[in-house]
UniProtKB/TrEMBL annotation:
InterPro entries: HAD-like_sf, HAD_sf, Ni-pincer_cofactor_biosynth, PGP-like_dom2, Rossmann-like_a/b/a_fold. Keywords: Hydrolase. This is HAD hydrolase-like protein. Transmembrane segments: none annotated. Pfam families: Hydrolase_like. GO terms for molecular function: hydrolase activity.
Length: 466
């Protein structure tokens, strides 16, 4: 990446070097388009025999005259953070002396994984290929040469002296005004790449039965499969059981039917699995095992080649996910994860496609509300469902919008988690509405109830596993 404005420091070092050598370097001219190796810049101003020693002296002077005076370009840190947000690595490939390049990195606290110095033009391709780069950001036509030689996407910024016309003539794929534009470009670029990978993957599958909950992930997968394969080669399957809230069923069916695909609603019997009822930390393994064991023969019966889940790329690195393991052991495919689509990208793609689920809150199964070690029973699940429905009704009547809500079953004690902002407002402890909320949860079947002061936390019951 082109991260720092080296011109001020470069000019200072040239002036000091010129004074030592008795040479009046045309400093402004020499630093107008930085990028070429130092030896090339000195070649027009020194005898050939003096270029090497002068370069050595320049590099020796550099730390004292060109580190503290050199700023990062606007947007540099945010650009690096954008790469990290997408779980990428950052590689600095530069014509500069490696030790001095590292000093810049340390002084400006730049989040860089690897520094490769003393490479220029097409010579940068070797480092880009070796480190597995997919995008190279530069500001010089020779940076474009390096990117193209490596077969990676060339992104150019207009902060190094080369004009847009020069960079485009060199073959760059993208020109940005500066690094402040990079995070948005990267978001769009990666989403386009991953959606293309998803489409290619789905086309290869031929036909698909989507394990469909109606949430954002499985809804996007279903819509993408219809786009890639057509509705006649795709079906949605929703396992109906005590753990699926009634309120989720009709909206899920309506969306799937709007895509023109069949909707299958087999009964699943996870409650008959001892490991599920026992509700240890691996409960989700038994739930997913039951679902895939039901859907696999159903897919074969209806002529679908694969059973697919809406597992996304974030899920695969989120730590303890026994349900993912159960599905993988049974041969379910995960097209969203395979394409690298994160949860944020799932939502952005859904928004782009106009899917109503793009901002739908996460809606985990009812069993996820029951604390580990407490047996999962139809009674407990029904009690949680009644309590959550009563809370939503109460808040709607009070004109209070709530996005995330969970009633946790902690035995005979209930705990209500909802948007933290509400706890500093209409649901402040001791307020009339807060007391009414606790009362409707008690009436749903809990002996005692508390309003969790920490607010909603996805997977909060997993804290007990740690």
């Amino acid at each position: 990446m082109t991260l720092i404005d080296t011109a001020p420091g470069f000019r200072d070092v040239l002036r000091v070097l010129g004074a030592e050598l008795g040479v009046d370097f045309p400093v402004e001219e020499m630093t107008a388009k930085l990028g070429p190796p130092l030896d090339l810049l000195l070649a027009d101003h020194l005898p050939e025999a003096e270029i090497g020693p002068a370069g050595d002296r320049f590099r020796a002077l550099y730390p004292d005259h060109a580190i503290t005076s050199v700023p990062a370009f606007p947007g540099a840190h945010d650009a690096l953070a954008a790469v990290r947000r997408h779980r990428g690595r950052t590689l600095l490939v530069t014509g500069k002396y490696p030790a001095n390049a590292r000093l810049h990195v340390e002084h400006l606290d730049l989040d860089i994984d690897h520094v490769e110095g003393w490479v220029w033009g097409v010579g940068k391709a070797e480092a880009l290929l070796r480190e597995g780069a997919s995008v190279y950001v530069g500001d010089h036509v020779h940076d474009v040469e390096g990117a193209l030689a490596a077969g990676v996407t060339s992104v150019s910024v207009l902060t190094g002296g080369c004009t847009r016309e020069e960079l485009e003539a060199a073959g760059t794929h993208v020109v940005l005004d500066d690094l402040t534009d990079f995070p948005a470009w990267l978001d769009e670029h990666l989403l386009d790449l991953r959606l293309a990978a998803l489409e290619a993957d789905l086309r290869e599958r031929g036909s698909l039965l989507v394990a469909y909950s109606g949430g954002a992930d499985s809804a996007l997968l279903l819509a993408a499969a219809v786009r890639a394969l057509g509705p006649d080669r795709v079906a949605a399957a929703t396992g109906y059981s005590d753990s699926l809230p009634q309120a989720e069923r009709d909206p899920a069916r309506s969306f799937a039917e709007s895509l023109g695909v069949p909707v299958l609603t087999p009964r699943t019997h996870e409650m008959e699995r001892e490991g599920y009822r026992a509700n240890a930390g691996d409960r989700c393994f038994f739930c997913k095992a039951e679902l895939i064991d039901v859907l696999t023969p159903l897919a074969a019966e209806h002529g679908y080649a694969h059973v697919a889940t809406g597992t996304n790329a974030d899920d695969t690195v989120a730590g303890f996910r026994p349900g993912i393991r159960a599905a993988a052991e049974r041969g379910a495919v995960t097209p969203l994860a395979d394409a690298g689509l994160s949860k944020a990208q799932v939502r952005e793609a859904s928004r782009r496609w106009g899917l109503p689920t793009w901002d739908k809150p996460a809606a985990a199964c009812l069993s996820s509300r029951v604390a580990y070690g407490i047996e999962v029973t139809p009674h407990r699940l029904a009690r949680v469902e009644r309590a959550e429905a009563a809370v939503r009704t109460l808040l709607a009547e009070a004109g209070v919008a709530v996005r995330d809500l969970r009633v946790r079953d902690l035995g005979e004690r209930g705990s209500v988690e909802l948007d933290a902002a509400l706890l500093a407002g209409p649901l402040a402890p001791g307020s009339a509405l807060a007391e009414q909320l606790l009362d409707v949860v008690r009436r749903a079947g809990f002996d005692t109830v508390e309003l969790d002061p920490r607010g909603f936390r996805s997977g909060s019951l997993n804290d007990a596993l740690r």
